[in-house]
TrEMBL record, chains A, B:
This is Winged helix-turn-helix transcriptional regulator. Gene3D superfamilies: Winged helix-like DNA-binding domain superfamily/Winged helix DNA-binding domain. The keyword Transcription applies. SMART domains: HTH_MARR.
Length: 144, 144
DNA sequence: TAGCAATAGTTGTTATAGCAACTAATTTTA
DNA sequence: TAAAATTAGTTGCTATAACAACTATTGCTA
């Protein structure tokens, strides 16, 4: 990789693209009164998939700091979308799972998310998707 | 693009990669006592390039909200890296530029940033760089 | 030209991100 | 087995992100 390319700000492009996506998602959530943020959605999505997991596991799955997860969960609990249950065999652990309302919220938001993902991938191929995935994975692995 | 790919969380991968890069950068800044954050660096970099610009232009160049730019500039002014000058012909505008210390800071941090970019692009080719750029540009353009 | 709209920037508020310090519980080790 | 180290989670703090509301200024237009 030449210095010209190294000096080119890919970081900026990643950041700008991510912000564009995030803002687009949030605007759509707001427009349809979903009453949820993008990162709250990411946690709900993972809780739907994994049913009953600890803060720690959720943090690992979402690449979020455990403190951040702790605080987002707090907001989701306030919204009655999530409930916490202390573990009995290891009393340090706290399990988290969706409430019935949380499951409903997932089912309500999910189609909108699929739609928006489709919009983002417009004019791009399966190969493009695989390329993006591959390149991002290599970058991720390169960094200590 | 098939639904399988649409439903695959690229957003998450972008987010995770960006966080990894950001944390790596910040840890290196901290380890070498650069006394600067990643986003503060991005503004310094742009100010070095563009010499004397308004908050608004800086916001556009960095894909940041003008309120965010306003607050980061405030921090940079406190660190004596940046100075503000009210425009005379349009008194709403405030021009921003690096102080001599700001220029020094740029020259101090710059080699480290190049090094870290090189690390991130390890095992990747010029073609990969162009592919990533192309795909991100299409996604960006797809989103209203 | 008076009034209205648009623009540049700041301030207030809420959310996410990450580090440090802390509590409580569990595991390791001397 | 008692002390030390590790682990799970919370709380405090600072920074970034975005929206709304606000001031001050400038441009537009009836």
């Amino acid at each position: 990789m030449h210095d010209t390319f190294v000096s080119n700000p890919s970081f900026f492009k990643l950041d700008a693209t991510l912000k564009k996506i995030r803002n687009y998602w949030q605007k759509n959530f707001d427009a349809r009164q979903m009453d949820i943020t993008v990162d709250q959605w990411l946690l709900v999505e993972n809780l739907y998939k994994h049913k009953r997991i600890t803060h720690n596991e959720l943090a690992r799955l979402t690449s979020k700091d455990i403190t951040t997860v702790s605080r987002i969960i707090e907001l989701l609990v306030k919204k009655d979308l999530v409930e916490r249950q202390g573990s009995t065999d290891d009393r340090r652990k706290v399990f988290v799972q969706l409430t019935p309302q949380g499951v409903n919220k997932y089912k309500e938001v999910r189609p909108l998310v699929l739609e928006m993902r489709k919009t983002g991938w417009n004019n791009l191929s399966e190969t493009d998707y695989n390329e993006l995935t591959r390149i991002l994975d290599v970058i991720y692995a390169n960094i200590p």
